[in-house]
User: Which sequence fits this backbone?
């Protein structure tokens, strides 16, 4: 498999586990690292203080490879990171309802992180996500002034995502994570109400893959930034689409929910065989489809 460098971090291969997949339990994280050797685990998004998740149900499968979830950034607070000893790269996802909270959370999270991912795009908690994304330049600038580890910003597939990506990079972001889930809703036709307790939720998986390809392509074409591409990667062909659109690394999430962590090795084997057959390196194809 081909190693890559992501903002100075040496990764054994370009596949990382996306946020929200691995529980924030050190023993479980360690077992995933030891058994499946992910290049990195992106943590669930941590806030400064504990945040209660929404009431169940919070996750529903809507079709083959597509999910709808509304956990609502439920987490035990960033201070639990202090006791974590995990034998692989941790990309620590942080969020908050204010600039000050995000900065403080990032400072605490840096201790165990190889990279800090600022989540400014959760659609499932009022006061977070898009509500803070409009201050992305200021947020990144403040975090960069206090944190030495690389900073990536996770954005949603909004109409103004290219503009927000530019503002994140202007603020000093080392890269971007594209894309987050898309806000949607599923109704129980018998009960006549939403299936999820929160009502709406984030659509993920195969359903958003073409959207991820488009957004990554538009952002890379404009800025040539380093991007962790996420959104419906179930096969090496799906991953290759994201690389061609401009992703340096690829986050895997829904495929793990559906098929288990073994999918990571399937992706590695398939991508390696394709590149060896073509006689190419990963660096040859990143952004190839959208280069100006």
Assistant:
């Amino acid at each position: 498999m081909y190693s890559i460098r992501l903002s100075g971090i040496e990764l054994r291969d370009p596949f990382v586990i996306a946020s929200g997949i691995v529980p924030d339990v050190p023993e479980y994280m360690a077992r995933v690292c030891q058994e499946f050797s992910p290049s990195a685990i992106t943590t669930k998004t941590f806030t400064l203080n504990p945040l209660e998740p929404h009431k169940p149900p919070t996750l529903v499968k809507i079709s083959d490879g597509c999910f709808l979830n509304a956990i609502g950034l439920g987490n035990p607070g960033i201070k639990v990171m202090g006791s974590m000893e995990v034998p692989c790269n941790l990309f620590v996802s942080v969020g908050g309802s204010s600039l000050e909270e995000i900065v403080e959370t990032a400072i605490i999270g840096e201790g165990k992180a190889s990279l800090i991912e600022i989540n400014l795009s959760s659609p499932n908690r009022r006061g977070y996500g898009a509500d803070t994304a409009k201050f992305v330049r200021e947020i990144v600038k403040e975090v960069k002034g206090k944190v030495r580890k690389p900073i990536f910003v996770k954005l949603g597939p909004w109409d103004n995502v290219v503009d927000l990506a530019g503002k994140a990079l202007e603020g000093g972001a080392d890269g971007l994570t594209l894309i987050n889930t898309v806000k949607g809703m599923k109704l129980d036709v018998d009960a006549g109400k939403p299936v999820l307790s929160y009502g709406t939720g984030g659509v993920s998986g195969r359903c958003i893959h073409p959207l991820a390809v488009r957004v990554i392509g538009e952002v890379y074409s404009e800025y040539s930034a380093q991007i962790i591409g996420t959104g419906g990667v179930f096969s090496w062909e799906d991953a290759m689409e994201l690389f061609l659109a401009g992703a340096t690394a690829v986050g895997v999430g829904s495929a793990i929910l559906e098929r288990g962590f073994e999918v990571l090795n399937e992706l590695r084997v398939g991508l390696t065989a394709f590149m060896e057959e073509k006689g190419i390196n990963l660096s040859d194809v990143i952004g190839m489809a959208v280069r100006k």
